[in-house]
Amino acid sequence: MTELVEKLYRTSDLTDGELKALIEADSEDVAELLRRRADEVRRLHYGKKVFLRGLIEVSSYCKNDCLYCGIRRSNRDADRYRLTREQIMLCAESGYELGFRTFVMQGGEDSFFTDDFMCGVIAELREKYPDCAITLSLGERSYDSYKRMKAAGADRYLLRHEAADGELYASLHPSEMSLAHRKQCLYDLRSLGYQVGAGFMVGAPRQTTDHLIADLRFLQELKPQMIGIGPFVPHHSTPFADEKGGTLALTLRLLGILRLMFPRVLLPATTALGTIAPNGRELGLQTGCNVVMPNLSPVDVRKKYELYDNKICTGEEAAECRTCLQRRIEAAGYEVAVERGDCIE
Question: Which of 121, 218, 222, 329 is spaced 20 to 30 A from 187 at the CA atom?
Fold first, then answer.
């Protein structure tokens, strides 16, 4: 099986059968070789740099009813909030002082955050922090909405496709949502000149290896600048509360595969990795990841943005989180880069 790792390292691609074998390989030797090769490739293109993205969770309201999500509209126990424009700017001010050069405004699909509101916030951030990247993660919006926010100064947009197989996607989402529309949004974003992030859950209910291969093939077609994956972690107030979560071993295998398939992509070590294992994010960094997204949101709202159970770092101040992360990143053998951290195309 190690020969498949070497082939992927040399060619950045495998057949479906070879990918299936590698994804399912439960071998410490394979895992270690995949880790070493993935780390070698990320160091070739990005050195030891780890890029920090300051996450500002702007709203826990959402019109959607995704079956796996803690802020789905049917969750009557969710503690809802919205940040004001002033609160968002204060989060950015704090983040800039701490060395963040990318701000990520993330939230549920909340109609309160109109194009006028978002374009005003984006324009103010662009004026105050011209050396920073502005990233949005606000779900599915119209082409005109994406266009207006790009013109206002947004640089990047994160929209995980979640599942590239139509049947699996339908089993995870309400009937009014469609994979075709999700994909169209991603292609619209690319056509408008955004740096685009896509990605999927690992270990989602009913997910098979063939589904994961479909995800990898879709990403090859889309060619995003950032790929975000993380283990599925259940939330107690969803239909999937009793489902088994994704495993660390499988997630790390897929991170290594992604780094070798997409040598220059920006690959985050997600919060969900740290949720399922104390050293999960460090292991992700050692398996090809080069991005970490600490939280800049006000401490009093972090627990309210509960997409899944046991989310880490919900009680830390931004400065505490930044200091802790830097120590852990350096202990893992890498260094924090105070820069925008754009994808090398």
Answer: 121
Q: What is the CA radius of gyration of the chain?
A: 19
- Would you say 181 and 159 are in contact if contact means Cβ atoms under 8 Å apart? no
Torsion of CA 119, 120, 125, 131, to 10 degrees: 50
CA dihedral of 21, 25, 31, 35, whole degrees rounded to 10: 30
H-assigned helices in 248-345: 248-261, 271-276, 280-285, 299-302, 318-331
Q: If 0-12 CB within 10 Å is exposed, 13-18 middle and 19+ buried, where does residue 90 land?
A: middle
| Distance from C-alpha of 276 to C-alpha of 55, rounded to nearest angstrom | 20
Distance CA 230, CA 225 (A): 17
CB 128 within 8 A of CB 103: no
Q: Which amino acid belongs to residue 337?
A: A
Answer positive or negative: Cα dihedral of 281, 286, 287, 289: positive
Q: Residue 193: which residues within 8 A CB-CB, separation 6 or more?
A: 150
Query: 136: which residues sit within 8 A by CB, 6+ positions away?
Result: 104, 105, 106, 118, 122, 149, 154, 156, 157, 158
Neighbouring C-beta atoms of residue 336, cutoff 10 Å? 18
Tens digit of each residue's pLDDT, the chain (345 residues): 899 999 999 999 999 999 999 999 989 999 999 999 999 999 999 999 999 999 999 999 999 999 999 999 999 999 999 999 999 999 999 999 999 999 999 999 999 999 999 999 999 999 999 999 999 999 999 999 999 999 999 999 999 999 999 999 999 999 999 999 999 999 999 999 999 999 999 999 999 999 999 999 999 999 999 999 999 999 999 999 999 999 999 999 999 999 999 999 999 999 999 899 999 999 999 999 999 999 999 988 888 899 988 887 766 666 678 888 899 999 999 999 999 999 998
Distance CA 256, CA 6 (A): 12
Sorted by sequence, the CB contacts under 8 Å of residue 155 that are 6+ apart come out as: 133, 134, 135, 194, 195
Q: Residue 126 carries which side chain, given as an amino acid letter?
A: R
